[in-house]
Structure formats: structure tokens, C-alpha cells
Amino acid sequence: MPREMFAFQTDEDNSPTLTRSPESQSSMTSSLGASIERPVRKDLQSLTGLAQLRSKGANISARNDLHPYVQTLSLADVDSCVALENAAFPENERCSREKFNYRLSACSELCLGLFSTFDADAPTSSVPTYATARPTNSAAPTKKAVLIAHIVATKCESKTITDRSMDCPPDWQSSAPPSDGRGHQEHGRTIAVHSVAVLPQYQGRHLGSMTLKSYLQRMETAGIADRISLLAHQPLFKFYEGLGFESQGPSECKSYGGGWHDLVRRPVLRSKLSSPRLDQGPCCAFG
């Protein structure tokens, strides 16, 4: 469901450093395969340079309590995605469990999570996704990979997001679901970003923009689409323009109140990916 909230500052002094996943994961489907897996290390190294924590004395521990890394989401992350969504948005604006199940079944390779490793004895009562987190690996069962932020998307055949591309096809769990243009279109050349969310207690740390940068690089390096599309209201244009998106004018999408604008980013050279500079940036999601 389209919605947005001003959620995270772009103050790099509050930005944790991205690290590598404690356990390599190969959950990407054959449609991407190694084409995404190969650039991950360079991707994280690049983001580490962008978001390097600048120590300025006091309160360093509060800033450096995360050890974030990105990895592809899978069906095993549905509970955490639902918990994150419930924490980030009011009830009438949350992506449903069914849609998470559908999207992570149909195209998990298009969905990215920002995780951080937590020890079992860490204070976690305020982290809604801790209870649904999984151990990072079998050798360290007391360490959990906790979902902090996520980006969930599908592919569509239109150049911009439509009401039908936001929907779930009927009987999608059947062996031969009907092809009526709803939901994920495997041969589409547009990546439709439906959900971007950051846990409220970790907003204001540049995590949303870091995750988006990582996502954009991974998708564009894979070469699986001609464009990446999302919906936004006009006050958010500057933020998305800083990430290479361009407004295409008012959207034909009328869901959830309408009044949306289409924003599209076409593949660009990595060197052109600029860092947005705003006092505040959006956390948005399109259910």
C-alpha cells in the first residue's frame, strides 16, 4: 500500500558501518544467480566508505550499536518482515502477510533486507523483529540475524507502477496461477518497488538511504531490468532525485487515496550514484 513517513536523518555522523553477512547466503534464484552474488562484496565495501562512522567523542556506543549487513530476503524472513511492517506503519497501511508470502515466493531475488547481529544477552525488548530472528549460523545459536530494514519489490511490464502490479494474483499458490497481469511479471523490464521500511528505533541513522543504494547497485549490476520505479508525493522528489530517480508526472495509480507521482530511475554508471543530502528522508512503502 502506498504510504510514507519522514523517518531517517541523512546525518552521516549517525551512520553505522556496513559489514559482511556473518554467513554467506545463496538464496537468490536462478534468474539472477551469480550475477548479483559477485558484486556484493564490492557493494558493501563501497557503502562502508560512504557511511563510515565518524567518531566525535561522546555517545559513541549509542551510535555504534549495530553491525549492519545486507542480504536477499527469503520466505524464512516473512515473520520478521511482518513484524517490521507492523512496527513501522499504522494498521490500515501495512503490507499484508499474504503479500509478503506471495512476493517472497515469486521473486525473493528482488527483495533485500538490512540485518544486524545481536547476542542473546543484548537488550532486545524494544526491537520488534528480535523474536522472529533466526540464528546467524548453526555454530553460533546465541547470535541472531535481526531484520532492521527491508525493500520488497516485484517486476511489471508497464514502465511505471499500476494498481494491478501492486496486487496479488488470485490463486497464486496454485500450480498454474492465472496470468491476468496482476502481481509479479517475470518477463517485465521494470522493477516495481512496493515497500521500504526501517524500524522506528533505528530511523535517523542513514540506514534507509544506505539500504536503497545497496539495492540499486545490486539490481542494476544484475542487468535484469531497464528501470526501477516507485510512487511518491512531491515533497519527497528531492530525496529520490538524489538517488537518480526522475519524476514522470502524476501517476495513474488511484489506490489508497491517489495523488501519487511516478518516479523512475534508469540504469546509470556506478560513479553517478550520488548521496542525497536532506535534513530528513522518507521511509515509504507500497503494499
Briefly say what this structure is:
The chain is α+β, with helices and mostly antiparallel strands and 287 residues long.
Q: What secondary-structure arrangement, pairings included, does this model have?
A:
Layout (H helix, E strand, L loop, with lengths): L2 E6 L25 H4 L2 H11 L9 H4 L4 E5 L5 H11 L8 H10 L5 E8 L14 E2 L7 E14 L33 E9 L8 H16 L4 E6 L4 H5 L4 E5 L10 E5 L15 E5 L2
Parallel strand pairs: 6-7
Antiparallel strand pairs: 1-10, 2-3, 3-5, 4-5, 5-6, 7-9, 8-9
Helix pairs in contact: 2-6, 4-5
Q: What does the model show?
A:
The structure is a single chain. Strands 2, 3, 4, 5, 6, 7, 8 and 9 form an eight-stranded mixed beta sheet that branches. A two-stranded antiparallel ribbon has the order 1-10. It starts with a strand and ends with a strand. β6 (190-198), α6 and β7 form a beta-alpha-beta unit. It is globular and about 50 Å long. α2 packs antiparallel against α6 (207-222) and α4 (78-88) packs across α5 (97-106). The protein has 287 residues and is of the alpha+beta class. The protein has helices at 34-37, 40-50, 60-63, 78-88, 97-106, 207-222, 237-241; strands spanning 3-8, 68-72, 112-119, 134-135, 143-156, 190-198, 227-232, 246-250, 261-265, 281-285. The longest helix is centred in the last third of the chain and has 16 residues, at 207-222.
